Amino acid sequence: MRPGADSPRAETTVGERARATVVWLIGSLADNKAALGRRYGEWAISAPTIESAVALAAMAQDELGHGRSTYPVLAKLGAPRDEDGPGAGAPLPALCQELPDWPAVIAANVVIDGILTTFVASARHSSIEPLAQRARKILQEEGPHRLHAEAWLRRLCRGADADRAALLERLAQLWQQAARWPGPAEDPGYMEALREGIFSEGPAQIRARVRDWLSELLAAEGQRLALEDPEDFAGWDPISRR
Questions:
Q1: Is residue 183 within 8 Å of residue 233, measured between CB atoms?
Q2: Rounded-to-integer distance, Cα 232 and Cα 226, Å
Q3: What letter does residue 198 receive in the DSSP assignment?
């Protein structure tokens, strides 16, 4: 049985700093996935096309399922909590209320879901087997979400000037929030989790992957956006990741 498999040993072989960081990350991942599902669901009846409404409804169902099915991983780490438990419901600020317009929906699909999914990908071979299993399942369902994000980003970039400007503004706004979610580049607990094989990539690598993907998409449409790494983490909360 691999270290981190579903057994008492899974809770004792992880260093305390790494364990605390993993618990905070997994709890926040579940909170944000559930909130993203709710925000998608609100727009499923207001999307600009029938096809996008159907896609958004399916994505909402996926994200709500991802959130609900991720909370049990916390129990495997000895920190049980559910979506209605203490400490739940602290997603990124942009997801605490309805997304204001369609460009914001697409920006959330690109940037917020992009950061979260890239983090999940770093756990698909985790030494904590319940986490690895959940990560692999989520990744199987995220492919269509990425296709939706890319298609609509291109469509808005090729549309009216106002639509393109609104998309770029929303992307920049949400990057400021989502880029902070993984935390400081050299966070001690995260670094310990990397050494223990819980994750394969750290905060800076996660940000870089999403930045490179988004920058390439925008460049193909003749657009450019400055996506800087956050530097000031004063006041940043490692539990809510915000």
A1: yes
A2: 17
A3: S
Q: What is the mean pLDDT of the chain?
A: 91
Specify the pLDDT at position 2.
31
Amino acid residing at 111: V
How far is Cα 215 from Cα 110, in angstroms, rounded to an integer?
11
| Cβ neighbours for 37, distance < 8 A, ≥ 6 positions apart | 59, 60, 61, 62, 63, 64, 65, 66, 67
Query: What pTM was estimated for this model as a whole?
Result: 0.91
Label residue 81 by pLDDT band (50, 70, 90). confident
pLDDT (tens digit, 9 = 90+) per residue, 31-50?
999 999 999 999 999 999 99
Domains along the chain? 15-82+90-220 (1.20.1260.10)
Of the candidates 125, 109, 121, 62, the residue with the CA atom closest to the CA atom of residue 214:
109
Could you give the CA distance from residue 52 to residue 46 in angstroms, rounded to a whole number? 9
More confident residue, 89 or 163: 163
Q: Judge whether 108 and 36 are in contact, CB under 8 Å.
A: yes
Start-to-end C-alpha separation, the chain = 36
Token digits of residue 19: 């364990």
Residue 229, both tokens: 């790494």
Phi, psi of 46 (to 5 degrees): -120, 5
Angle between helices 113-121 and 203-220 (to 10 degrees): 130
